[in-house]
Amino acid sequence: MSEPAIAATTPAVLELEPGSYYWCRCGRSANQPFCDGSHAGTEFAPLPFTVERSAKTALCRCKRTGNAPYCDGAHRTLSEGRQT
After folding, report:
1. Which of 46, 58, 62, 67, by CA, is between 20 and 30 Å from 3?
2. Is the dihedral of CA 70, 17, 46, 4 positive or negative?
3. Whole-angstrom Cα distance, residue 12 to residue 75?
4. pLDDT (tens digit, 9 = 90+) per residue, 17-73?
């Protein structure tokens, strides 16, 4: 499997309402950190996740987290030159 594009080297900190969401795994979505279908034709698929109650949440945009879709600080190990 190829590596996803790095959409940003910072998380998206958002106030999410209860509901279902689709996190972009490919890094190509223009609607980061959410899927917009840009993965079509790739080996990637969005990650569905559910929010049970309103909360401020940090979602990964570097696509290297070990706790998808949530940021685990993996972006801190990336160099700026690797952004795509």
Report:
1. 58
2. negative
3. 12
4. 999 999 999 999 999 999 999 999 999 999 999 999 999 999 999 999 999 999 999
Q: Phi and psi of 65, rounded to 5°?
A: -60, 150
Query: Token match 């600080």: residue?
Result: 73
HSE-CB of 19 using CA atoms within 13 angstroms: 6
Single-letter code of the amino acid located at 61: R
Look up the pTM and report it. 0.89
Residue of 8, 36, 6, 41 whose CA lies nearest to 24:
36
Residue 84: half-sphere exposure toward Cβ, Cα within 13 Å: 10
Report the distance separating Cα 67 and Cα 81, nearest Å. 24
User: 76 vs 80, which has greater pLDDT?
Assistant: 76
